[in-house]
Amino acid sequence: MSTKTSTKPFGIKDKFGYMMGDIANDFMFMFASGYLMVFYTKVLGVSAALVGTLFLVSRIVDAFTDIGMGVIVDSVKPAKDGRFRSWIRRMCIPVTLASFLMYQTSLADASLTVKTVYMFVTYILWGSICYTAINIPYGSMAAAISADPKDRASLSTWRSVGAQIASTVINAAVPMLIYHANADGNQVVNKGMFPKIAGVFAICAVICYIICYKFTTERVQVAPKEKAATKSNTNIVATLFSSRALIALILAAIFLVFGTILASSLNAYLYADYFKNPGALSTYNSLMLIVTLGLSPFVVVLSMKFGKKETAVVGTLFTGLVYVLLCVLRVQNPWVYVGISFVGAFGYMYFQMAVWAFLTDVLDDSEVRTHKRDDGTIYGVYSFARKLGQALAGGLGGFALTAIGYAEKAEVQTEAVKNSLYTVTTLGQGSAYIIVALILLFIYPLSKKKINDNTRILQERRESAN
């Protein structure tokens, strides 16, 4: 590994540019996470169970594409504009176009076979191929922007702020645009808004990708692996999964994403059908930006003082207990529900904002053990884990809607269905966050002391190499 000395130093331009990359990703990812199932069930009219099957099948494809893309990033010769930035340039148009294609209403009256083929082709094209080809290089790029752990922690925070900005824009605006009240006061979907919204988000994503490409600089250069020395994919994955830290972080990521995406998937139904107030969901999602901005100055301070693992355990356990309490209380007022959820969000949001710094610690721990870095490959494995969590949440969310008897084409759900929807949404999130806390507490090995020891070892190695 070598670091360029002729480039400009790391600064606010890199942070802002890297943040814009995640905003671009999440204009598509968050929209799909929160509203693609709504589009499939209420516009195309397919069953939630079929949607769940699509999400799970696509994750099987991701097992190959995510890890494969990571190997490609680690192995191919860098382009003139960098190993990672070059992929942002190549893929920004294909990924946004693929996202737009998923939300076309022209097939609403087609046969179930045609709809199924359309769903599988467009979703896998976007999520498993195009999104993978830009997200894996983008995530791996943090290690190339700076070798300084503090800079990388800063990038993690800015990335999380970017994700929340995109989430706030999407989840505050979309419910107000796609839902409207009918003559009986029930919330129905405005089907024609989906392709329009998807088109606007696609254009915004391209602009954000261009800013990310222009504003970031790759300073740390890693030579591509020699083909003769490159391991088979099987051996690479076996080596990665020999890391207890990586296994634990993957498990925690699966349940973290499960909790957040389950909320994103089911909240659209909960607020529309149970509370009959989509506007309250817009308010709640707007408040999440306040949570992110309020936490951002303290993430690095708290993690440095008490340790990332230690503080994340407390945070996720707190959020889990809040949602278990909501399940027990059976809240009827949407604004009371919003208020309690807002307080609970501080716990899991802390871990969500720090998680990319957790990944950097895992990369360092791997380097300590193996004397080499496989940033792209490890990030590919981790990205697959997050997508698996997304699939489990979307898939089980879809199966749960079917299991409780949710009628996709009905404007009004029965009281039994609405109460079951409330239970699944609250207890599902609460269980997920409590499991994250237990994984971090009992399985994840990188305590504050261990991280400091790894930093010292790597620093000594680099000093001796010079």
Fold and architecture overview:
The protein has 466 residues and is mainly α. 78% of the residues lie in helices and 2% in strands. The protein is built from 15 helices and 4 strands. The strands form 2 sheets. A two-stranded antiparallel ribbon has the order 1-4. Strands 2-3 form a two-stranded antiparallel sheet. Helix 3 runs antiparallel to helix 4, helix 9 packs antiparallel against helix 12 and helix 12 packs parallel to helix 15. The longest helix is centred in the last third of the chain and has 37 residues. It is globular. The N terminus is likely disordered.
In short:
By secondary structure, the protein is an all-alpha fold. It contains 15 helices and 4 strands. The chain is globular, with a radius of gyration of 22 Å.
Approximate helicity band: over 70%
Biggest β-sheet description: 2 strands, antiparallel
Distance between the termini: 12 Å
Instruction: List unreliable stretches of 5+ residues.
Output: 1-5, 227-231
Rg (CA only): 22 Å
Mean pLDDT, all residues: 86
Overall 3D geometry? globular
* Number of discrete helical segments: 15
Strand content: under 5%
Q: Give the number of DSSP strands.
A: 4
Strand order of the largest sheet: 1-4
Structural class: mainly alpha
